[in-house]
Amino acid sequence: MRIAVIGGTGLIGTRVVARLESDGHDVVVASRATGVNSYTGEGLEQALAGAHALVDVSNSDSLDEAAASEFFYGSTLNLLTYGAAAGVAHHVALSVVGTDRLARSEGGYFAAKAAQERLIRESRRPYSIVHATQFFEFIANIADAGTNREVVRLSRALFQPMAADDVAAAVAVTAAGPPLGRVVEFAGPERFRLEELVRRQLRLRHDLRDVVVDPLARYFGTDLDEHELLPGPDATIAPTRYDDWFATGGRPYEPATRHPLRS
C-alpha cells in the first residue's frame, strides 16, 4: 500500500514511516525538509500521486489560537482537496486526547485542533482521527513551560502519557486499516498527576528545580480540570510503562523550536 506521511520527518512522523516501511508499505515522506509544504500546497500533488492513504502528523509552530488556526485550516483544506484529486481513500490525522473538551472550555491551540477535526469530519472524505495522550518525550517541555525562577508550578491534573513509539504504532496501524469515520483514543498504561511525573523525571535527570502544585498554574496557557487530559473508557491502552521507557534510553524531544504537542 502506498501511504504518504505528512510531517514525516518529525518525532512521530519518522517513527510512523519506519513502522509502515517495516510492514512492507510504500511510504512517501512528506515535509518541508523533503520539499512538501501542506500549508502552501507546494509538492502535495506529487507526494499524494498514487497514495491509498494520507497520514497527517504535521503541526503548527505556534500555540497561539489565531496562528494555529490559520495553519490547520490552510493545511487541512489543502490535504483534503489534493487528496480528493489524487483519489486518496483514507485520511488519517493525529490529534490530542481532550481536544473537544479543552476547545469548549479554554479555546487556544485546542480550538484550532478542534476546527481541524471538524474540517475532516465535514469533508465527506473517508477518515480516521487518532487521539493520543501526551508523550513521555514531552514531560521535560511541560516542566520548562511551568518554570518561573527555578520553580516548576503545575496543576494537579491527571494524565496518562505514552511513548512516542506507541503513538506511532497506533497511527500506523490505523492508517493501514479501513477508514473508521470517527475518533479513536490511545493512552499510556499508567495514570499520574502532572507534578508527580514531572518531579520524577527531573530527579532522574539530576535536575534540582523545585516542583510545586499551584491551583492557578496553567498548562501551556490553559486552565485544566482534573480529568480533562484523561482518555475515555474505550481508549486502547499502549504497552510501554514510563519506567521501562526511561530504562531503555528514553530521552526528551529537543527540536530546534520546542513545542509541547509537536509531532
From TrEMBL:
For this UniProt record, give its keywords in alphabetical order, as a comma-separated list: NADP
Task: Supply the InterPro entries for this chain.
Answer: Epimerase_deHydtase, NAD(P)-bd_dom_sf, NmrA-like_oxidored
Q: Which residues form the NAD-dependent epimerase/dehydratase domain?
A: 3-69
Q: Which domain of life is it from?
A: Bacteria
Q: Which residues form a coiled coil?
A: none
Q: Which SUPFAM superfamilies match?
A: NAD(P)-binding Rossmann-fold domains (SSF51735)
Name this protein carries in UniProt: Uncharacterized protein YbjT (DUF2867 family)
Instruction: Give the source species.
Output: Agromyces terreus
